[in-house]
Amino acid sequence: MRKVLPFLFIVMMLSGCSSITLLDSWKSKDFKNLNKKKILVAAKSPDLEIRKSYEKAIVNNLRKLGVNAVELHVKFPNFSNKENRTEEENSQIVKQFRNEGINVVIVTSLKNKIETRNSRMPQSVEIPLEYKNKYIFESNNQLLKVSSKSLNRDLEDTFSGTTEMTYVLESITYDLSLEQKKRLVNVCLVDVTNPKSGEAVLDKFSKIISRQFKN
User: Fold this and answer.
1) Pairing label, strands 104-116, 39-43
2) CATH number, residue 165
3) Average pLDDT over residues 40-54
4) Do 91 and 102 touch, CB atoms closer than 8 A?
5) Do 137 and 90 form a contact (C-beta atoms < 8 A)?
6) How many domains does the chain have?
7) What is the predicted pLDDT for the residue at 55?
8) Domain containing 194: what range?
9) How far apart are the C-alpha atoms of 182 and 195, rounded to whole Å?
10) Rounded CA gap, 169 and 121, in Å?
């Protein structure tokens, strides 16, 4: 990590300060009292260690708020990250979760990566429209890598031709106790610009998401 720091300093001088902020969020009227239910946290990434890091960080912050939360990799260690599931397969997943007393699922992923010379992110539209027909494990996006090696590679890309590197991390919350068309109850988009480290992103992102459940 020490080798990365001098390079980070140069990049920050040229492209501005780093920031991790809640870009936009939406809650349905059914979001109330979800913090009283058992919550499963699932992170999407082909890298198991990245998944574990994000799931653990969010669960730890939820537990600090008194929320009964558990990581997907802990509760269902053999769960398959298969993409493009059928509606029947999704129904079986929901049934499996509910049989284990889980009524709420938080799914996190990397939604977008943007290289731009404009330091401002475009304003988002009404979030629910985009997610209306989205199933729990439909997307194949990844989370932002935690390792300094991957961070260094991204920063080299930034240094070579752009002034801003922005990642949009996504968190989607479903209430499985509701009928399917009403299950989507919360969407959060987090803007990560010129990250100083993957660890810093993980820490701030997990806190932003858990605060959605604060009384």
Assistant:
1) parallel
2) 3.40.50
3) 92
4) no
5) yes
6) 1
7) 97
8) 4-211
9) 35
10) 13
